[in-house]
Design goal:
- The protein folds into two domains: about 90 residues, 2-Layer Sandwich (Phosphorylase Kinase, domain 1); about 190 residues, Alpha-Beta Complex (Aminoglycoside 3'-phosphotransferase, Chain: A, domain 2), CATH 3.90.1200.10.
- Helices cover about 45% and strands about 15% of the residues.
- It contains ten helices and ten strands.
- This is Aminoglycoside phosphotransferase.
- Pfam families: APH.
Amino acid sequence: MATLLSAAVARELDEHLRVVCARVGADPARAELIKYTINAVYRVPPFVIRLSGNAEAAERTVANATALAAAGAPTVRLADVGPQPIRSGDWAATVWRNVVTTGRPPEPVDLAGPVRAIHRLRSLPTGLRPWEPIAKARRRIDRADGASWMARWSRDAVGLDLDALLAALRARCDALERALVEVRWQLPPGVVHGDVHTGNLLITAAGPVLCDLDSVGTGPREWDLTPPAHGATRMGRPRAAYRAFADAYGFDILAWTGWPTMRAVRDLQMATSTLGAFDGREQVANQLAYRLRTLLAGDDAAIWSRYT
């Protein structure tokens, strides 16, 4: 299903895309919007261009991508277009080599090889951020505070006043911070991708490669194993597909005592990722409202859908 944008959002993105295309010699008329969840990703031959409203995150992504490429990691590569990111107003763009895929949809088992390769890295020659999922969720919650359009949406779509919704989410953050202190990690900490799921995997003739390098950092390796398991328990993916991943990686996170906490952290992440940043995107707004309603109701059996 194609990403649907309001006319105002589409115009804003088009303006920034034209600026970036002019800098790299690409034709914006050939642009195809691949997806827009937190960042807007376009295929603009011969590149893939990723627009971000967070310039600091774009700077970090460039540093991560450069370090991973130098280490030979199975990740996407930046295009050779000069210094990156490229600024356009408050937005920043990263420009990537277009990856030719086989056309086969990625499966969870395809994640195991790239994840193991990243986990074999002792370090990277860049200032990697520590894993701080709750702090990130708090920043997203703060982003939504006080927005008049968010207040209307919260009442109508979630059934709570915005203050009550954000208070409930902050209380969940508090509880999870306490729970994480008690987790007994099984794997050695180190370099992590930070957002391992099949939506961030490309299948090429030479093998699978990971994209979306914003969240690369240092932390518990169990976190990189959480999204595939979460896909089977929250996103409706087949359990057999997860088990194939766990067997290929060599660790079954569902059998680990820390899994309930990790699932709850992933739930929080996915219920706040677009909070305060979905105006003009009806499909994202509807799915986010469903996630929040079921999360706050304690409905662990509810199946969530990916954003389109």
